[in-house]
Design brief:
411 residues; alpha/beta; Transcription Regulator spoIIAA; Rossmann fold; seven-stranded mixed beta sheet
Length: 411
């Protein structure tokens, strides 16, 4: 049980927030896990405020870690540092930002100026991501613990990275708190000139628009870059179906890779219109201009389950998350198996199925096995080409951060 000690008088500054946690939680922190859950806190010297630094001491009363405190979240402390004591000041934050940026310095050339600069906990910035779209940076916050530090962090980003503009995105669960504390809204441009149109950026020499103020995630699915490059290498001479196509990322790579035709399938007219605009942005690429690009607005499961059969040589299945919570995990695994089976029905002989998942509650092996079962039930011979995981700018350093996986099967 958490023990609360007496509060300081009004004339005294509050004592440093000190926590002691369970032995199991200590072990997890030492192993690199970045979260302390509320039920792991066994002693706390006083009530803490959101975003306050919480110092964690071990059973021998020695410094163990320091992190951002959030009294209203099941994740009570998001760890910033484990080991010997350090001063968390402006210089410390500056060095940590520089470290994340440096890790990306050699990953991309001038043909790619859209990528992730800070990937949350895996870069030591728990509950915070920072994405680059050419000269526009998008800062997304997932926890209210960052709100009291928002001005400090946003000024650091502006000073150190010098973007043309900085856009704030907020997880749905903290939008009310941000409005109350900062008078800030999701999608607000907090620095730089107003946008007259959607900003564009380069990825592997292909130009895309990014809906940085209102789009999903921070405006584009940057995490699928490596899978898009693989699809490009497989697309030459093929008729391609991009299911759950969103803004056409896989489609444009397939077109540049020499696909004869590309069909975008999505339930959202807004997404399909975005894909059309992205194709228009890249008509200077001869292979894209030659490719026959089609759009179908429909529910993917319904369209694939219809009696009419289509013959595609390459099918990409990249749905949104089927399991946003643990209770949805079993149903998600069944859905992935069903989706793979439906896709294979439309795959020509010699065709390739590309299936992806972004459901963190479904492990990579559970997902791969689900797709393999769907393939086996088709009673068609197939070979596994490869499986993929996270891109290097979206690296995952702990289990809960592992969400992205892809599998490639040839028939």
């Amino acid at each position: 049980m958490t023990q609360q000690k007496k509060q300081p008088s009004e004339n005294q500054p509050p004592a440093r927030l000190r926590l002691r946690i369970t032995a199991a939680a200590e072990t997890q922190l030492r192993a690199g896990h970045p979260w302390v859950y509320g039920d792991s806190v066994r002693e706390q010297n006083r009530n803490g405020a959101p975003g306050e630094l919480a110092v964690i001491f071990d059973r021998k009363d020695k410094f163990l870690a320091v992190g951002l405190f959030d009294p209203d979240s099941p994740i009570r402390v998001r760890i910033l540092h484990v080991g010997k004591p350090q001063t968390i000041d402006a210089a410390w934050w500056s060095a940590r930002l520089a470290q994340a940026v440096e890790q990306r310095r050699t990953l991309f050339d001038a043909q790619t100026n859209g990528y992730r600069l800070i990937n949350g906990e895996s870069d030591g910035w728990p509950g915070l991501v920072l994405d680059r779209y050419d000269e526009t940076l998008v800062l997304k916050l997932y926890t209210a613990a960052w709100l009291p530090r928002f001005e400090e962090i946003s000024n650091l980003i502006r000073t150190q990275l010098k973007p043309a503009r900085l856009v704030l995105r907020l997880s749905r669960n903290i939008q009310t708190a941000a409005r109350d504390l900062l008078s800030a809204e999701d999608g607000q441009i907090i620095y730089g000139e107003k946008l007259d149109s959607l900003p564009t950026f380069l990825e592997s020499g292909i130009r895309f628009e990014a809906d940085v103020c209102h789009g999903q995630k921070t405006g584009f699915f940057l995490d699928q870059r490596d899978n898009r490059r693989i699809v490009e290498s497989l697309a030459n001479g093929r008729h391609v179906l991009n299911a759950f196509s969103f803004s056409g990322g896989f489609s444009l790579y397939a077109a540049r890779g020499g696909a004869t035709s590309v069909t975008d399938l999505d339930i959202s007219a807004h997404a399909l219109a975005s894909a059309d605009r992205n194709f228009a942005l890249n008509q200077s690429i001869p292979a894209v201009a030659r490719c026959n690009h089609k759009s179908v607005q429909a529910d993917t499961f319904d369209w694939l389950a219809a009696n009419e059969q289509h013959n595609f040589d390459l099918i990409v299945l990249d749905p949104p998350s089927f399991a946003k919570r643990e209770t949805e995990r079993a149903g998600a695994i069944r859905a992935y198996e069903k989706l793979a089976g439906l896709g294979i029905q439309h795959l020509a002989k010699g065709g390739i199925l590309v299936a992806c998942s972004c459901s963190a509650h479904v492990t990579a092996e559970e997902f791969f096995e689900a797709v393999r079962r769907g393939a086996a039930k088709s009673e068609r011979a197939f070979q596994e080409i490869q499986t993929t995981r996270h891109a290097p700018d979206h690296h995952a350093t702990f289990k809960e951060a592992e969400y992205l996986k892809g599998i490639y099967l040839s028939f």
